[in-house]
Design goal:
By secondary structure, the protein is an alpha/beta fold. The protein is 30% helix and 26% strand.
Length: 343
């Protein structure tokens, strides 16, 4: 079967034939229909410092996908059957550490991620542990393929109290744009979206941003006007930019909440007293999706129709054009990029 592979250390990816995976007794074998391309895949293609320390080539990439069940292992029968359309949580956890046993599997220290630590989904077939697989039940596979990054946005937004709140979203990449739409669907009074890229701001506006602004004094003015001078109730920091982190602390209200999903590079100086302690704010670090609370939330929002992520999807490519998919992301013109594999 064809797959997108990181064949060796160094820049670039290749499309090559790889063996079809076996379906173990506790697994489900899935024919992949759609897969989402992520910034992580770009890091691996470019072979940056993170990739050099984490990835062990050769490796099939891809951790966002959805498709059709073609085989069910003996231990998974009853819950799943062939022909069902499914997606999957790409973080495979140990199930027996303290975090897993207390409902915090999303921070399991032994997590193995498909497309990063084991074979991924940029291919025709993938075998997944049945415990990680979710039925789509009416959700199209194109949307199912992006429930992984969408889940990051749901986790970021819905672990704060949103109804009636003024929400500030800093960084309007695909996950930031999802966050805008989720906050509106969850009952936010207003959502201010901030990014340096006009095309991303246009996507944020399409997803329901009350104000979509480039960084500058207008952001503070908008937040203060919408919050009656108090500051944002909730700030979702999705960029990891140093200036955005300081803006998050400056523009959140006293006693407000800052949700941190963006990953900064290196150390960042923070005035802990004035930016955090004296304001009495709560900071929440977001990693992945809560298993499986976040997935249930996503399914309810998507099936009810209160949230539609499709405007964020801007590009679709066949598997063989992975270089074009990565180029679209590098250009800054893309929202979410989808690989169409087999359907």
């Amino acid at each position: 079967m064809k797959a997108i592979v990181k064949a060796a250390a160094g820049q670039g990816l290749v499309v090559r034939d790889v063996p079809k995976p076996a379906c173990g007794p506790a697994d489900v074998l899935i024919k992949v229909h759609h897969a989402g391309v992520c910034g992580t895949d770009l890091h691996i293609a470019d072979w940056d410092e993170w990739a050099q320390g984490r990835i062990k080539p050769p490796l099939v990439l891809g951790h966002e996908f959805a498709g059709e069940i073609v085989e069910v292992g003996a231990d998974a029968r009853g819950e799943f059957e062939t022909g069902q359309l499914v997606t999957a949580e790409g973080h495979i956890v140990c199930g027996h550490c303290l975090q897993c046993r207390t409902g915090n599997g999303h921070i399991c220290a032994k997590t193995r991620i498909i497309g990063v630590d084991r074979a991924g989904a940029f291919t025709e077939f993938i075998a997944m542990p049945a415990g990680n697989v979710m039925r789509l039940d009416g959700i199209p596979t194109e949307i199912g393929a992006i429930m992984d990054p969408m889940g990051n946005a749901f986790h970021t937004v819905l672990t704060a109290e949103i109804p009636g709140s003024v929400v500030l979203v800093l960084g309007c990449g695909p996950i930031g744009c999802f966050a805008v739409g989720i906050a509106r669907a969850a009952g936010a009074k207003a959502v201010v979206a901030v990014d340096v890229n006009p095309k991303r701001l246009a996507l944020a506006a399409t997803m329901g941003a009350t104000k979509a602004l480039q960084p500058g004094p207008e952001v503070r003015q908008a937040v203060m006007e919408l919050s009656e001078g108090n500051g944002a109730d909730v700030v979702c920091e999705m960029s990891g930019a140093v200036s955005a982190l300081h803006d998050a602390f400056a523009l959140v209200r006293n006693g407000g909440r800052v949700q941190l999903l963006g990953i900064p590079k290196g150390d960042i100086p923070v005035n802990w007293a004035t930016e955090i302690i004296f304001k009495g704010i709560t900071i929440y670090g977001v990693i992945g999706r809560k298993m499986y609370e976040t997935w249930n939330q996503m399914q309810r929002f998507l099936r009810s129709g209160v949230f539609d992520p499709r405007p964020v999807i801007t590009h679709r490519f066949p598997l063989e054009r992975i270089d074009d998919a990565l180029a679209a992301i590098r250009s800054g013109d893309a929202g979410k990029v989808i690989i169409e594999i087999g359907h």
